[in-house]
C-alpha cells in the first residue's frame, strides 16, 4: 500500500502540490479491492433551500445539485441547508449515478422555542443530510445524529450533526454550524470532532471517518477553524467556510470547487480520497 503523509498542508495551494504527489503514489490502486484502498469522492453542497434566506434562495439549487451528482458521480454527498424532501430527490440522482446500494439520511435542526424540528418555508423539516453509495458487499449501515449542547439562545434554529456508518467501510459526517457567532461555531466544531465522533469510534467501531460541511469558520479566520481540527486529522477547505476533515488513515488525492451556476451562494466542493480496506485497519 502506498505511503501516506500524516497531514495535508493547511494552505490550499500547498495542499494541491502535495495532492499531485500522493496521486502519483496511488496509481494502480483498485476501488473495488476489498483488502486494499478504496477510492471515494466526497461532494459537499450547501443548497440554501429553506426559503428563509432570501439573499441566496433561488429554488433551483436542488436541480443543479442533481446535475452535479450525475456528472461527477460522488460516492458521498454531504448536504447543508436543505428541506427533507430534497433528500428524496437527490437520492434518486445518486441511484441513477451508481449501481449497488445507496443510503440516505436526514437530520433536522431543532426549533429552540418549540422543541420540534425546524421548518422550511414550505413546511418540510429543515436540516442536513448525507447520501452514501456503498460498494458491494453491503454489510448494513446505521445513522447517528445529535443536536449540539452549545446553541445561540437568540437564534431559534439549533444546529445539528449527522453521520452515516457504512458498516466496515467508513463514517461519513456532515454539519452546518452557527452563523451568529464564530466562537459558538468553534465550540460546536470542537464537540463534533472532539466528543461526538470519538464516542462513535469507542461505542461502535473505529472506521476511517470523513467530515464535510459548512462550518461558518475559515482557515486563518478569527477564530481559526484549525483550532477545532484534531492534530492527527487531515484538513482541506474551499477558500471559504466549507471544510473537509478526515482521520489520518485517509489519503487525499484531489480537491476542487464546482460551479453551482448561481443557484446557491456556495460552490460545490469535491474531494477525492482513498480509504484503507478493512484488512488494513490497525485500530
UniProtKB/TrEMBL annotation:
Domain Endonuclease/exonuclease/phosphatase: 59-217
InterPro entries linked to this entry: Endo/exonu/phosph_ase_sf (IPR036691), Endo/exonuclease/phosphatase (IPR005135)
Gene3D superfamilies in the record: Endonuclease/exonuclease/phosphatase (3.60.10.10)
Signal peptide: 1-34
A Pfam cross-reference name: Exo_endo_phos
Entry keyword set: Signal
Record has Oxidoreductase as a keyword: no
Domain of life where this protein originates: Bacteria
UniProt keyword Endoplasmic reticulum present: no
PROSITE patterns, per database record: PROKAR_LIPOPROTEIN
Molecular function, one GO term: catalytic activity
UniProt protein name: Endonuclease/exonuclease/phosphatase domain-containing protein
Organism of provenance: Micromonospora phaseoli
Amino acid at each position: 500500500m502506498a505511503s501516506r503523509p500524516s497531514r495535508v498542508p493547511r494552505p490550499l495551494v500547498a495542499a494541491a502540490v502535495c495532492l499531485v504527489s500522493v496521486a502519483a503514489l496511488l496509481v494502480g490502486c483498485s476501488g473495488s479491492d476489498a483488502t486494499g484502498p478504496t477510492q471515494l469522492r466526497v461532494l459537499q453542497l450547501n443548497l440554501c433551500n429553506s426559503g428563509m434566506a432570501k439573499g441566496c434562495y433561488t429554488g433551483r439549487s436542488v436541480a443543479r445539485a442533481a446535475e452535479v451528482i450525475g456528472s461527477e458521480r460522488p460516492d458521498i454527498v454531504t448536504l447543508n441547508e436543505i428541506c427533507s424532501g430534497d433528500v428524496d430527490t437527490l437520492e434518486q440522482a445518486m441511484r441513477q449515478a451508481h449501481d449497488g446500494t445507496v443510503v440516505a439520511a436526514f437530520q433536522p435542526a431543532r426549533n429552540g422555542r418549540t422543541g420540534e424540528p425546524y421548518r422550511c418555508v414550505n413546511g418540510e423539516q429543515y436540516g442536513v443530510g448525507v447520501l452514501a453509495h456503498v460498494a458491494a458487499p453491503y454489510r448494513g449501515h446505521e445513522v447517528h445524529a445529535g443536536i449540539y449542547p452549545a446553541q445561540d439562545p437568540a437564534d431559534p434554529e439549533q444546529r445539528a450533526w449527522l453521520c452515516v456508518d457504512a458498516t466496515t467501510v467508513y463514517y461519513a459526517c456532515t454539519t452546518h454550524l452557527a452563523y451568529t457567532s464564530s466562537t459558538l461555531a468553534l465550540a460546536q466544531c470542537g464537540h463534533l470532532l472532539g466528543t461526538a465522533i470519538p464516542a462513535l469510534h469507542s461505542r461502535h467501531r473505529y472506521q476511517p471517518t470523513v467530515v464535510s460541511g459548512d462550518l461558518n469558520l475559515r482557515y486563518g479566520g478569527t477564530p481559526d477553524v484549525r483550532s477545532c481540527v484534531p492534530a492527527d486529522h487531515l484538513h482541506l477547505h474551499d477558500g471559504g467556510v466549507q471544510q473537509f476533515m478526515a482521520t489520518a488513515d485517509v489519503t487525499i488525492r484531489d480537491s476542487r470547487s464546482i460551479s453551482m451556476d448561481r443557484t446557491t451562494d456556495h460552490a460545490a466542493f469535491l474531494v477525492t480520497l482513498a480509504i484503507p480496506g478493512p484488512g488494513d485497519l490497525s485500530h
